[in-house]
Design goal:
Blueprint lengths: L1 H13 L3 H110 L3 H12 L3 H5 L1 H6 L9 H26 L2 H8 L8 H24 L8 H27 L5 H26 L2 H13 L27 H6 L4 H32 L11 H4 L2 H8 L2 H22 L27 H19 L3 H31 L27 H4 L4 H7 L1 H6 L8 H34 L4 H5 L5 H44 L10 E2 L10 H20 L2 H23 L3 E2 L1 H19 L3 H4 L3 H10 L15 H4 L8 H8 L8
Parallel strand pairs: 1-2
Helix pairs in contact: 2-3, 3-6, 6-7, 6-8, 8-9, 8-10, 9-10, 9-13, 10-13, 10-15, 11-16, 13-16, 16-17, 16-18, 17-22, 18-22, 18-24, 22-24, 24-26, 25-27, 26-29, 27-29, 29-31
Length: 817
């Protein structure tokens, strides 16, 4: 329509003549007629659609009316069904109530009949003194509904001319009589140790409702057994070693056997949960008897007096100072050692080492037996209570028991701590007086010695004795099952290692031997081997002649170069050097021994050891962490002393030798020029001489040292070699052949010094790269920068700077630009 309006608007604007107006009028009339036709047709169609919709709605209204009629009929039927169902439910409920009443009446009559029957049987058995039959009848009566016995119907029906009493009165009388009889029989059987009669009588108490009495009598019976066995043990021979540990073990075995065997009877007759009641009472007796064992052990072994004597002995400073023990029959060796003590000290010792060892073994076994019993008791306790504890916790009878309290309050655990530490220290000092050092003649050779196992390495016997001693004390402590004892011992062990072994023994040995070391000493065979405890002369032969070792090494350099071993060292000085090497090995082996004793044997080879011995709470986890911490502390302190003693050895003996050995290396005639030609290119005499002298000097030391100590010493020597050679490279003038020859000599030197130790080879990286750059062609360098070309630089991990590469290239005398 809008489009037509616009069209007409345009036509009106273009009208110019009358004919155009007529045409427009005719057009308008024609279109108006057409529009009216279309409008009439639209109205007719709309009315037709509307009439159809109305007819459809009328049909739907008719259908809805029919549905509503059916719905009304259905509601009427449901209402009728509901009334019928309610009536049926009422009839069923009435019938069910009648059935229950009939069942109740039948059950009541049946129980009354059963009551009368059992009373008759019990009465007959009672007249014949068959109390077990009476008890079983009473049990059956007690299982009946209590209301039955007290009902008026039962009181009228059950009594008879023979049994006129009321059922409840009669049963109570029988229970009292049976209780007295069973108690008398039980005590009589217990006194006669008649196990069969005892068991039979024990089973009768729950039948007559006397569960508590039966359990109390049984508990007293078990406690009497424990007490009786304890008296037998304690009245026997108590001087024999280990007798008190065996006594406590025997008591624990008796109780564990009783708990295991009799729990089946108690479970069947009383109920398994009643075992807790029995165990609680028995545990009180066990605490009492075990405490008696500890008291007698303390008295017979004079424990308090020994501990007091140990404390006084430890408080005396002279017992902790290093002393020197000499033997006159050995003439040429000095060795600083602890002494076990003078005769006066030995008299004042509170206890000998052997007696202390026996005492600690028995003490440990006593605590071990109690710990094993505590674990058994705890596990069974929770089993009988049908409880699960994860992690396992000690139950109240153990945790708050008299013996647990006694162990702490009466200082048993603290006494063990004092004695075990004293045993460790005393035994160690004893081993010092028995020290033996191995001979090294088999190892002092220019041929490499292949060690088949660790036993072929020379170490002090003190370390072997100490390892055995530590293992024994660890076993004694771990076996106690007392976490606080092991925790305290680990603390003391770390202190002992640091103070006694590392400082007072090892460090003092090194300090004593250090002044006797000299740069002129070599490992060689000696004719006579002075003993490690032999007398040491105040001065050596060379010092008596006014020969200064270090001065000689500097002033007679050329003579030493010709023959490094031309300086004659007396046997005594060589033996001092040997001792020093042995002690270095001992120090390095201590790391292995400590790791073996603490981590390998306790945690790795026996992964369940701590959990089995310390099963409660988080004890095993905490102790495992503490063992690791203890080992870490010992090894850290040991490593500090290792580095110190190797550094002392290097500076005293090897530094001058290294300077002497390395002096002719990288020398090609003139000291500052490395100009080589075809005549001398193959001449590697200087480095070959170094290789020969190095092997003859170092192989004996390498044969003696373990791998770790040799690697530490070799690292210091290589640092010196690298520093000297790097300084020397910067002073050289090199041609192309000289650079190639220099690279060959350096490669041979590195192979000789480092062998297969590739970690130490890395120390030569900078020196190797300097020599490598010397061998590059002129085409490998950039003309503008003077440094190597980028493609060559990117192909290697350089440790020398571009300035160093440019500077080292300037050492070449035959470069083209």
């Amino acid at each position: 329509m809008e489009d037509q309006a616009i069209k007409y608007q345009v036509l009106l604007q273009k009208l110019a003549t009358q004919s155009q107006v007529d045409k427009l009028q005719a057009l308008l009339q024609r279109e108006d007629a057409e529009t009216l036709v279309k409008l009439d047709k639209f109205i007719q169609d709309a009315e037709l659609r509307h009439n159809k919709s109305i007819r459809r709605l009328e049909l739907q209204r008719t259908d809805l009316t029919s549905i509503l009629a059916h719905y009304q009929n259905a509601l009427s039927l449901v209402s009728d069904s509901h009334n019928v169902a309610r009536q049926v439910h009422s009839d069923i409920s009435r019938a069910d109530k009648e059935r229950k009443l009939v069942d109740t009446t039948l059950q009541f009559v049946t129980q009354v009949r059963s009551l009368k029957t059992h009373i008759a049987v019990a009465h007959e058995a009672f007249s014949k003194n068959e109390y077990s039959t009476v008890a079983r009848s009473i049990q059956q009566i007690r299982q009946l509904d209590p209301k039955v016995m007290d009902s008026q119907f039962a009181k009228r029906v059950v009594p008879s001319s023979e049994i006129p009493e009321d059922p409840s009165v009669l049963v109570n009388q029988w229970c009292e009589k049976c209780t007295k009889v069973f108690k008398t029989n039980f005590l009589d059987a217990a006194s006669r140790q008649d196990v069969d009669q005892l068991t039979l009588t024990f089973q009768m108490f729950p039948l007559i409702g006397q569960d508590s009495l039966g359990l109390d009598l049984y508990s007293k019976y078990v406690c009497d057994i424990v007490a009786g066995q304890s008296r037998k043990i304690m009245t026997g021979e108590n001087k024999r070693p280990g007798v008190f540990a065996q006594a406590l073990l025997h008591l624990c075995k008796i109780v564990s056997t009783v708990i295991n065997n009799h729990s089946q009877i108690i479970a069947a007759c009383y109920g398994l949960h009643h075992m807790v009641h029995v165990m609680e009472k028995v545990e009180k007796e066990v605490d009492l008897q075990a405490g008696l064992v500890l008291d007698v052990f303390t008295e017979v072994r004079k424990l308090q007096r020994v501990v007091h004597g140990v404390n006084e002995w430890n408080s005396n400073p002279r017992h902790h100072q290093p002393q020197y023990q000499q033997q006159q029959q050995q003439l040429q060796q000095q060795n600083q050692q602890y002494r076990e003590g003078s005769n006066e000290e030995a008299i004042n010792e509170p206890i000998t080492v052997a007696e202390l060892s026996s005492l600690m073994t028995e003490f440990s076994q006593i605590l071990q037996n109690w710990s094993m019993y505590s674990l058994f008791f705890s596990v069974r306790w929770y089993e009988f209570r049908n409880e699960t504890k994860s992690p396992l916790q000690p139950p109240s009878p153990i945790l708050n028991g008299q013996l647990t309290t006694k162990l702490s309050n009466d200082n048993f655990l603290s006494n063990f701590q004092i004695l075990i530490v004293h045993y460790l220290q005393r035994s160690f000092r004893k081993s010092l007086s028995l020290e033996e050092l191995p001979l090294l003649d088999k190892l002092v050779s220019t041929k490499p010695f292949k060690h088949t196992d660790l036993s072929t390495y020379p170490i002090s016997s003190v370390l072997e004795d100490l390892s055995i001693l530590i293992k024994r004390t660890l076993i004694l402590t771990v076996n106690t099952g007392q976490s606080e004892l092991l925790s305290h011992f680990l603390d003391q062990l770390a202190k002992f290692y640091q103070n006694e072994f590392l400082v007072r023994f090892m460090q003092n040995k090194f300090k004593d031997l250090h002044p006797k070391l000299a740069s002129t000493l070599f490992l060689k065979k000696v004719d006579n081997h002075p003993n490690s405890t032999g007398t040491t002369q105040s001065s050596t032969k060379l010092s008596q002649l006014g020969f200064n070792f270090r001065g000689a090494a500097a002033n007679a350099l050329t003579n030493i170069q010709s023959n490094l071993q031309s300086v004659v060292s007396d046997n005594e000085s060589v033996m001092f050097l040997r001792q020093y090497l042995i002690y270095v090995n001992t120090l390095y082996f201590n790391v292995r021994f400590v790791h073996r004793l603490l981590t390998v044997e306790i945690l790795e080879e026996n992964p369940n050891l701590l959990h089995d011995n310390f099963p409660f709470g988080e004890d095993s986890t905490n102790l495992s962490k503490k063992i690791g911490a203890c080992e870490g502390l010992i090894i850290r302190q040991n490593n500090k002393l290792q580095k110190w003693c190797v550094k002392i050895l290097f500076e005293s003996v090897f530094l001058s030798k290294i300077r002497t050995l390395i002096h002719p290396v990288f020398s090609n005639g003139n000291e500052d020029n490395y100009i080589s030609n075809a005549d001398d290119f193959e001449n590697l005499s200087s480095v070959n001489d170094f290789v020969s002298k190095w092997k003859s000097t170092m192989i004996p030391f390498q044969n003696v040292f373990c791998a770790e100590s040799w690697a530490e010493l070799l690292s210091l020597m290589i640092d010196t070699i690298v520093r000297i050679l790097e300084q020397r490279v910067w002073t050289l003038r090199v041609n192309e052949l000289g650079a190639t020859k220099l690279d060959r000599e350096l490669s041979l030197l590195i192979t000789t010094v480092c062998s297969t130790n590739y970690i130490l080879r890395e120390k030569f990286t900078k020196l190797t790269q300097l020599v490598l750059v010397l061998g590059f062609d002129d085409d490998d360098f950039d003309v503008d920068s003077g440094d190597i070309k980028e493609e060559i630089e990117s192909g290697m991990n350089w440790v020398i700077s571009p300035q160093e590469r440019i500077k080292v290239r300037s050492l070449k005398v035959d470069k083209r630009h």
